[in-house]
Amino acid sequence: MEKLGTGKKALVTGASRGIGRGIAFVMAQEGYDLAISYSTQKAEAEQVAHIIETEYQQQCFVFQADMSEAETPGRLVGDAVNALDRIDVLVNNAGITLFERDLGDDIAKLNLLINIDFRGYFLAAAAAAKHMIARNSGGNIINITSSRGQRAYPEDAVYGGLKAAMNRATESLALKYAPHNIRVNCIAPGATVIRDHPLIKEFYDSMRHKIPLGRVGVPEDIGNAVVWLASDKASYITGITLRIDGGLILPGMPENPNHDLNQGWGTATNTTDFPGDKK
């Protein structure tokens, strides 16, 4: 069967594993040539590229990139442009997760989190937009954030705050670049399995009962959203945060006070069972 590619080209940061890997695979399946970056997992990144080139028959260039360094995002975008000739889509995915228990009084870790999860995204977006404007080609910038940018949890003041900041910054970038036909959006994953490990599987198996749609996410869920949001089918969308979480953060406090139930939103209940409805 002849493969019908899109002919488009994308840079996906942090694509050696997890959500970035899933995004890269879905984009390759949809006909994108890719540049991907990794920080330390060279072998895993090269494996991703090998799969993309052999199974999906798309080009894939691999670049090492420490996104905590201020000069890296711009250089990475330039390297990707040189390899691919252009970038139609930038997916800012490379990030780290650190909570207050990990940060403590460690200013170096705090700065690392800020530099990778916010500054790195911002600088890569600016570099990609500059390239797209110079080509007068339009394009898409998609920032992978988190549902924690919209819902607070204990010990995620910095991590969640940075995700919220990126959601908000994206709105301004969308306004800034709209005259150049560059759309800028966020995708905010909720509970998403990013590694195949028994302990992680056990954790997510217990969590799925708290998710209204009854399952945890997989990286391909995020990849499918990226492909759609970058497509012409979403051409009238910019400046949004699209949450992909199976309804995880919708309920707020549990409806059902029975803590023995392993469901955050309670169970389906006939409205006549509520005391206020009884005559």
Folded structure, characterized:
This protein has 279 residues and is α/β, with parallel strands linked by helices. The protein has one domain: Rossmann fold (3-Layer(aba) Sandwich), CATH 3.40.50. The protein is built from 8 helices and 7 strands; from the N terminus they run βαβαβαβααβαβααβ. Strands 3-2-1-4-5-6-7 form a 7-stranded parallel beta sheet, sandwiched between helices. Helix 5 runs parallel beside helix 6. The radius of gyration is 20 Å and the shape is globular.
Summarize the structure.
The protein is α/β, with parallel strands linked by helices and 279 residues long. The protein has one domain (9-252): NAD(P)-binding Rossmann-like Domain (Rossmann fold). It is 41% helix and 13% strand.
List keywords for this structure.
279 residues; Rossmann fold; 8 helices; 7 strands; globular; disordered C terminus
Architecture blueprint of SSEs:
Layout: E1 9-12, H1 18-29, E2 33-38, H2 42-55, E3 60-64, H3 72-84, E4 89-92, H4 100-103, H5 107-135, E5 139-144, H6 157-177, E6 182-189, H7 198-207, H8 219-229, E7 241-244
